[in-house]
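Quick illustration, no need to memorize.
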Amino acid sequence: MPRLTRRAALVLPLAAPFAARAQGGWRPTQAIRIIVPAAPGGTADISARLLAPFLQQHYGQNCVVENRSGAGGVIGTAEVVRATPDGHTLLLGNIGPQAIGLSLFRNLPYRQQDLLPVCGTVRGPNVLVVHPSVPANSVPELVAHLKANPGKLSYGSPGVGQSPHLTGVWFNQATGTEAIHVPFRGAGPAAMELVAGNIQYMWDNLTSGITQIRAGRVRALAVSSADRNHQLPDIPAARETMPELARFDVNTWFGIFLPAAAPRPVAESLNAAMKAWHETDEVKARWREMGGVSLYGTLEQYAAFVTAEVEKWGAVIRKEGLQLEVG
């Protein structure tokens, strides 16, 4: 089990006064684990490590983050599905394994009904970034470069079935281009390989990729959302750049899930705690800094949001005839 960060450890002596304010009828009786089905460094990991100290302080119990990357988020998700449904094991899920993967993979070891949506953390666009060596300063220039070199350039993603992967697939299909997909065990490792020049481009979560953009290590060409993002006002939405991309609109999202059999009071308590978390100045500032938007909702609102995403990506995947095996 990973060691507690110094920050998490420091809040323990302060936990007792805050524990009395824990909402709902349920309170944890042992350490809380937040399973992140991705490697450290990506938005899922950032969300979890921002949430963990708050829950620890709120409930007066240790809260640790454990990264379980691999298979596009399937390994970590499956661990939570199998966990005791008592509120002590949470999943920091995302659009990949909790929406896209349900239609993309033939042999998933879980179903949508095996998880209970609790509350979202953050949503935001993906951003198309290229290594500085790529001779493209705009989306049309990248498309022209890809068409001149079919199947020769490679693009990375945090895993097969994750939003950046499917965003790349949709982009290539819409523009009639070919490239080699290289999956990694999370957004952090993919970004490192892009900076190193071992892959040429990727659709990265803006919330995690903006640091590399600001440092000038990669060049941003477009965001995947329908509109521009306030953190990169000079970077166009992809659909602005070419007629072929007029319908292009993708937002990546993240949030907390429980095993489906968890009692309603557990979910209600965690949702109330996360509402208070979303309202803190620290979280509001972090989302603004990352170019993200708060994804707080009630249990019913978040469940409806997740179902709509499952249906949206299911339609896209069926239309394209995409089917993969969990490997």
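The chain has 13 helices and ten strands.
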